[in-house]
Design a protein that fits this description.
The structure holds two protein chains of two kinds. The N terminus of chain A is likely disordered. The longest helix of chain A has 36 residues. Chain A is mainly alpha-helical. Chain A contains 14 helices and no strands. Chain B is globular and about 55 Å long. Chain B is α/β, with parallel strands linked by helices. In chain B, 44% of the residues are buried. In chain B, the strands form three sheets. In chain B, strands 6-7-8-3-9-10 form a six-stranded mixed beta sheet, with helices on both faces. A four-stranded antiparallel beta sheet of chain B has the order 2-1-4-5, with no helix packed on it. Chain B has a two-stranded antiparallel sheet with strand order 11-12. In chain B, a hairpin with a 2-residue loop joins strand 4 and strand 5. The chains are: A mainly alpha, B alpha/beta. The interface between A and B is medium-sized, with 33 and 37 residues.
Chain lengths: 326, 255
């Protein structure tokens, strides 16, 4: 932010190139490895039918989904961290993902589909937001430990509700439902809705960037500098809930992306939200594409849920941040 | 130039009776000092005047318009507040922190430009913290942070200054320098109101005083009339000895 114009574009371009490279890598690796020349052939409309199916019908949509979900989660995490002035905030840790999962599962259990699942997941995520922030705010100010405890307890509560739902649901629905819980991209159908949402939200947040920078200094300071704090807070609550709900309906509940990515980026790029938010979209996408590629290749031809990989990255990061925050 | 007025204002201090309602006017060019013991409601008063918390009763007006009718942004362009407490959220440099003072002046799509940066640099220079511009705020001393807080409001360039104990944490030289800067703002036609704990700084620099008592009572007026040892002794519950240096009264607590 020091000399604002200077440093805004080059990190974003670099991150975008990294994202493209990750997507390309992700398309070539998997149970059957393809060479770059195979990919190039398919891109020109040639190549064997098998390679075409593999790339165009399976790997490209899946990789794009991974990119979108990673971006959504990272932006949601970054937003919540600004709002709470706490680097430990994350949709998964604070129970938003759990709420969204419960919403989605409830819709599935009722035999509903499509948009209803998304809407129900959003309702769950938003209910979680209200619960966590309402309770943690309570009387007096919230502290990091109080907020985290509230989030963890709410997440545990959602976990119990999920177990209950699984126990009472008919056996033939179980496999379809279990996928929500593992954080797995293999069921995601079309990548376009989450990608479009990611782009839309990034554009919407652009004019709010400087207000968010001021909000990061605390609500009183922000109000004194002309920010209408309440409406902005509600906007962020809503946007973070929509982002989380969309990510969860696309790929189940994947943890820690919203924690790891903003933290790493802030270390390198500083804390200007006008840069951090789009950078989170790109870097979060890249991270999840790579994690998914890893999940597909580690024990190929079997696949790991991608949530396992992100947890392996995220848990140490979280513990380190918690340790450092005293 | 702007004028800050209160009409029948009662600030909302929990579990305190209303006391005396404030009807006063801080005119351009005036320096008001707010004196009172801990817990008398000085900070609450400043936050109420800045529109950050609602009064129990009465009104705050800027140039005749009720604060509630003005937009937050409009208020922030007219009125700046130096906070007493500051919280570090995320790491930020000194320059970035001063630069947020430009926020009310920029539209949503605007980036801070060269002119904004120049204002911020000039403010840091005046508060003697320009050499720290690249440092992280979390690494500063209390006094350096205090001066940065004043520099941020100077970057904001308000017509009305509210300052909550602006000399907190400052060494003797910087206490005088910061108060002189605020008095200088008043001399250029701005209205200044600050909470002070140092009676002698108030006696030397303020032309009007507002005394806030813990029970909600209050009195205000020109400094000369307010600096009565008996009134001040009652205010603080502390016996005082008085002398005169350079034409200004000096108060020293005695046992």
């Amino acid at each position: 932010m020091a000399t604002p114009r200077r440093s805004l574009w080059s990190p974003l371009v670099a991150l975008a190139l990294l994202g493209l490279a990750a997507l390309l890598l992700s398309v070539t690796v998997g149970s059957a490895a393809l060479s770059l020349s195979d990919v190039w052939a398919v891109a020109r409309g040639e190549g064997s039918p098998l390679a075409r199916t593999l790339i165009l019908d399976l790997r490209v949509p899946r990789s794009l989904s991974a990119f979108a979900v990673g971006g959504l989660l990272a932006v949601a995490g970054a937003l919540m961290q600004v709002l709470l002035r706490n680097p430990l905030a994350d949709p998964y840790v604070l129970g938003l993902s759990g709420g969204a999962s419960v919403g989605a599962l409830a819709a599935m259990l009722a035999g509903l589909g499509g948009a209803v699942i998304t809407g129900s997941a959003f309702a769950g995520a938003f209910l979680s937001t209200l619960l966590v922030f309402g309770l943690a705010h309570g009387t007096g100010s919230w502290t990091p430990s109080r907020l985290l405890l509230t989030g963890v307890v709410v997440a545990a509560g959602w976990g119990a509700v999920i177990t209950l739902m699984l126990a009472i649901s008919p056996a033939e629905r179980l496999p379809g439902m279990l996928y929500w819980l593992m954080g797995d991209l293999s069921y995601s159908r079309t990548p376009w809705p989450p990608l479009a949402l990611l782009l839309l939200i990034c554009l919407l947040l652009l004019p709010l960037g400087r207000s968010l920078n001021v909000m990061a200094r605390g609500p009183l300071q922000a109000a004194a500098l002309g920010v209408r704090v309440r409406p902005l807070e509600w906007t962020i609550y809503l946007v973070a809930s929509v982002l989380t709900a969309t990510a969860v309906t696309t790929a189940g509940s994947i943890g820690f992306v919203g924690l790891v990515v903003p933290h790493m980026l802030r270390l390198v790029l500083g804390n200007d939200q006008r840069l951090i938010l789009p950078a989170c979209a790109l870097a979060g996408g890249t991270l999840l594409v790579l994690a998914d590629a890893l999940a597909r290749t580690l024990i190929a031809p079997e696949q790991l849920p991608v949530g396992v990989i992100t947890a392996l990255l995220g848990v140490p990061t979280f513990l380190y941040l918690l340790y450092r925050s005293r | 130039m702007s004028r800050l007025e209160t009409r029948e204002l009662v600030i909302d201090v929990p579990e305190r009776r209303d006391g005396r309602a404030l009807t006063l006017s801080v005119e351009p060019g005036q320096v008001w000092g707010v004196l009172g013991p801990n817990g008398a409601g000085k900070t609450t008063l400043l936050h109420t005047l800045a529109g950050l918390r609602a009064p129990r009763r009465g009104q705050v007006l800027i140039d005749g318009s009720p604060l509630a009718a003005l937009g937050r942004r409009q208020v922030a362009r007219t009125l700046g507040l130096v906070f007493q407490e500051r919280h570090d959220g995320f790491p930020a440099t000194v320059r970035e922190t001063a630069l947020i003072g430009r926020h009310p002046w920029l539209s949503a799509w605007q980036m801070e430009g060269g002119e904004d940066l120049r204002l911020a640099e000039a403010a840091l220079e005046r508060l003697d913290v320009a050499h720290l511009a690249e440092r992280l705020v979390s690494t500063l001393s209390g006094g350096e942070r205090q001066r940065l807080a004043v520099a941020t409001v100077l970057t904001q360039a308000p017509q009305i200054w509210l300052a909550d104990e602006p000399t907190n944490h400052l060494d003797l030289h910087h206490q005088s320098a910061v108060i002189a800067l605020l008095a200088g703002e008043a001399a250029e036609g701005r209205a200044v109101m600050m909470c002070l704990h140092d009676l002698n700084l108030a006696a030397r620099w303020c032309d009007h005083l507002l005394l806030l008592y813990p029970d909600g009572e209050a009195c205000w007026g020109p400094a000369r009339q307010m600096l009565v040892p008996a009134a001040l002794e009652r205010l603080y519950g502390q016996r005082l000895a008085t002398a005169e240096i350079d034409g200004a009264p000096v108060f020293v607590p005695v046992r």
